[in-house]
Amino acid sequence: MVEMVGVDCMRKVVVPVAFLLFLVGCSSSPSNAPATVAAAEPRPQPSPTPTAHPTPTLQMDFVASGPIIVEDQVDVAAQRDGVMADVFAEPGTSVKKGQLLAKMDDRQVSAELEAARAKTRSMEADLKNWQAEAKVLEADYARAEKMWEAQIIPKEQLEHAKYKAESDEWDVKRVSELLANSKQVEHSLELELEKTRITAPFHGVVARRYIRSGQSVTKNDRLFWVTAVAPLRIRVTLPERFLGHIRPGTMVGITPSETGDGSHRYRARVIQVSPVVDPASDTIEILAELSGDTSGLRPGMRADLRLPDVR
Known about the structure:
The protein is α+β, with helices and mostly antiparallel strands. It has helices at 2-27, 107-149, 155-195, and strands at 61-69, 73-77, 82-87, 94-95, 100-104, 197-199, 204-209, 216-217, 222-227, 233-239, 251-256, 266-273, 283-291, 302-308.
């Protein structure tokens, strides 16, 4: 009875061991053998819900075009008729205020001026002569008064000395007025002589020359175009909505219109804002002055003024 129980126990132990050995042998089979147990596929995880963020609003630049200008830019015109004797300035010549650009034939005016100066000198000599004679006649009248008081001469002689002294005083005044008139004529001729000298009205550069030596010109004919080179400014118009948002002192960006890509950027400061709105276009006008390095810019070029738009 004990032996049978032992055998039965051995059977119970051998069966599970054999089953385990079978499983080990199956796991060591070649890789291409069919798997007995399928691997569990991972369950898809729910994606996290994205957090909503407000989309940033890009502030675009407003672009307004206008010309590069300078405050001093004029046509130098002839102030009298004449013939150009010499021309000293060519286009591109840098000039200073008062520098001689050209000269008219001034021989006639110079001769008239010398004659007027000679007449003035003559009138000055006449005036001195009349003034000296007036002093003599005043002395004669004073002596005649004393002689009449001493009953040496009659009253008629006293009155004669008095009237002669008064007459001479009027002659002194007459010659004084003639001298003043002569000096005015002299000054007028000096101005005419000055008009024969064409000079630069300010520091700048000669942009154009319209005349040549030997050319006859009449009053108001254009002779030169002279322009300043600094400070450079730009004048543009902006929509009415910028009123109150841009004021003197505001810094803006300037780009030459030819480039168009903003590669050459300059800075300018607003110096003037129109105090009124143009009712025809609902715009305001501003004037800005460029600062810093302005190389590459010239008066007359068109440029774009850029500033943040307002809505």
